[in-house]
Amino acid sequence: MTGKFTQASSSAYQYPLLVKQLWHAPLQQAPDQVIVYRDCARFTYRELRERIGRLASSLAGLGVAAGDVVGILDWDSHRYLEAYFAVPMMGAVLQTVNVRLSPDQIAYTINHAGASVLLVNDDFAPMLEGIRQHLTQVKTLVSMSDRVVPQTGGLPFAGAYESLLRNPEPGYDFPDFDENVPATTFYTTGTSGQPKGVVFSHRQLVLHSLAEMAFLGTAAKQGRFCRDDVYMPMTPMFHAHAWGLPWTATLSGVKQVYPGRYDPGFLLKLIKTEGVTFTHCVPTLLQRLLDAATAAKTDLAGLKMVIGGSELSNGLAKQALALGVDVFAGYGMSESAPLLCMAQIQSADLSGDTEKEAAIRTKAGLAAPLVDLRLIDAGGNEVAADGKTRGEIVLRAPWLAQGYIDNPKASEELWSGGYMHTGDIGVIEPNGYLRVVDRIKDVIKTGGEWVSSLEIEDLLSRCDGVSDAAVIGVNDKQWGERPLAFVVKDARTGVDLTDTKLKMHLKGFADAGVISKYAIPDKILFVEQLPKTSVGKVNKKELREKYDNR
Predict the structure, then answer these.
(1) Known catalytic residue: 362?
(2) Which residues contact 188 (CB under 8 A, 6 or more apart)?
(3) Is 273 a catalytic residue?
(4) Which residues of the chain have pLDDT under 50?
């Protein structure tokens, strides 16, 4: 197509959506805003941007060039934030290594990604020493430490992070390049097979940041994130970009607090002393934070918190609300970078009724800007958004991973029919809210009826004395499958909890027509804790392997 509307000046700048562009507004509008690391360090935005330039210069001096992969093994820190920017801005690729995987899996992901340089917190030096001989492509190690003398063991580090940043000039010339160049990579943590690698481009990360800022910033009264907030991640920066919020927070110019390794008591201290107002985490960490606040005889008033990774149960949501937390669920997946939905409450529904609000806050929520989310049946046909009809959740958005690294079969399955398949079953209500009913692989078929494990777990969580719950389907000769429940008792209120009490609790919901009588488990087992994956999800595969056919 040609014409007068397509004639561009030869001097016009074709603005690429690169991660470096996220710094323009905050440096101009909030250069003296602070970024805090535990009780160890404080930097202004201007100082941190200079450190990003120094890090890039140091990495270039170590031989890092465009297209190279730099891995990082660290807790949530200012160093991690610097790597979030410096490595992609050079044109290299940042691998956020999941340090909670087994050593063999960590070695697999580093080798599979092709990392040549590793930035390593010395907490992980002993583990890395054990797998160093298997890291076939790693040429250079850089140590990072909060100690006066880093604990490097027998590893051949090229230098210490802070020492390397001391000499180079901060004015590294970050070039322009194609916005579709890869910026980051990390590995999904399924419960079967080796982790699968996903890659995200500069364009995808910038659009994700803009959409996330718009989504949170357009909330009228609840679940809002704005310039006056103080942000602290409580989802690891190695997992799904900490939900992309470190980039969004930087773009917004807000005060940021990085807590290092998660300890509920120290997190509580930082929330109080630094005035943290916005965070996100998995349900397990929320429970531990609430327990720490209760033990300290304090509340968490003024804290906004998005919960993801696993379902936010009704019972846990009410506990958080009782301590003053503006808690609400988010929905996403590693392959989606991860933003898809958030359960923000419309102003008209802010009634102050805890029961009614908890029912909204625990949904997957409303789709984010630019997200095309729909439900399909087994034949791939779209089903109605009537609040009743179930279907698999499929989607399109500009920041979704386009496939898995070197895994074409899994990539085609992920994108079958031109939509990304989540593997989740959901219902979309007429008002646009998504409810996730279950994982396809976790739905239980018993007595000719489909039973949602998530629904039973949620109802169990509403019983006094329940700290955590999980439900799986186990083989049954008569019914095909039967639900088996696992319950963790609350240490304070669950002493007298029995399986009979829990079954009567569920029977009340069956009598009211909320669930089928077939959904009431025959057996409820009390356990000390539930097995979790490296990102805090209940490992139902492990439960099935241990308890099925017993």
Answers:
(1) no
(2) 195, 196, 197, 198, 334, 335, 404
(3) no
(4) 1
